[in-house]
């Protein structure tokens, strides 16, 4: 039984912090984007309401957050706890008495918010490597466990169309960029698209011998260290940090049965968040997670989530 964190939520301390952080950044109208937003009373649920002086529209503090139109929002913070503990939707449903289909949408709105937190710039020694996951077309809402058992193997050996490539790049300050880039090996164009504008200063790119990495380094006139064969780590240039990141990611993802490929990036985003912060499951950590989730714009409706299609570039 988890200790309920509802009081933390009821105290309004979370939205208080979210609103303050938004105010510091220049609180913008969700409709017209102007920053002439003023307080405009409270809702019957005691939520802050805002009014935009430019377009005259009003909105509440939950607008464009995963808590918009969320009934039972007092249970939401307890669900965060279930999520980071890796509990299934059904177990979470029993734990906090919210239907598991509702929790499915809660989960994916949280992941959609977190997927907006990603490294914008990598500096110094940057390790880059890709890792692969079996493609899964599993239906959106779980009705039974995945037909392909956890850790199942691809029908074809080696790299096939069933393997989805996830690109990870990480500098020694632990700034980490993650991206699900689609089937097969990364092309030079996709590496350029995703990494080209994130390469900061004094870069030494450490990678394996994949041609795309070589071309990326060449195009940006940066030094490259190429790992060849199984030779042992020598000095500071290696891709061991990224390889151990891949292992931690895969181990952590195992707790969720058969993740549908279209939701994979969201789960990686949650892992990345927890991994970076050395998350400790304390009340303070969960509050920080809640604030970070609510800071990101999520306007997807339940239908958007369920019918999501991913197109890879
Ligand atoms: Zn406006």
TrEMBL record:
SMART domains: DDE_Tnp_IS1595. InterPro entries: Tnp_ISXO2-like, Transposase_27_IS1. Residues 121-280 form the ISXO2-like transposase domain. It comes from the Bacteria. This is Transposase.
């Amino acid at each position: 039984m988890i200790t309920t964190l509802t009081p933390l939520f009821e105290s309004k301390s979370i939205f208080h912090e979210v609103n303050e952080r938004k105010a510091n950044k220049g609180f913008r109208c969700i409709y017209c984007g102007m920053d002439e937003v003023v307080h405009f009373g409270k809702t019957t649920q005691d939520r802050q309401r805002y009014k935009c002086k430019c377009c005259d529209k009003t909105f509440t503090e939950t607008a464009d957050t995963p808590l918009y139109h969320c009934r039972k929002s007092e249970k939401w913070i307890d669900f965060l706890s279930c999520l980071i503990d890796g509990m299934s939707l059904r177990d979470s449903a029993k734990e906090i008495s919210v239907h598991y289909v509702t929790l499915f949408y809660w989960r994916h709105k949280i992941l959609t918010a977190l997927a907006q937190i990603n490294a914008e710039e990598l500096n110094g020694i940057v390790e880059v490597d890709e890792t692969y996951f079996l493609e899964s077309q599993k239906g959106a809402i779980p009705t039974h466990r995945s037909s392909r058992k956890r850790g199942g193997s691809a029908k074809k050996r080696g790299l096939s169309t069933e393997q989805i490539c996830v690109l990870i790049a990480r500098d020694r300050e632990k700034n980490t960029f993650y991206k699900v880039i689609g089937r097969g090996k990364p092309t030079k164009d996709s590496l350029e698209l995703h990494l080209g504008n994130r390469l900061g200063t004094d870069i030494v790119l450490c990678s394996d011998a994949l041609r795309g990495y070589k071309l990326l380094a060449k195009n940006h006139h940066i030094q490259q260290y190429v790992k060849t064969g199984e030779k042992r780590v020598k000095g500071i240039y290696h891709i061991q940090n990224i390889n151990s990141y891949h292992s931690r990611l895969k181990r952590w993802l195992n707790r969720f049965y058969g993740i549908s490929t279209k939701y994979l990036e969201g789960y990686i985003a949650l892992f990345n968040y927890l991994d970076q912060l050395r998350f400790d499951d304390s009340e303070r950590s969960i509050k920080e997670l809640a604030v970070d989730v609510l800071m990101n714009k999520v306007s997807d409706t339940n239908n958007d989530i369920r019918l999501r299609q991913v197109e890879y570039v």
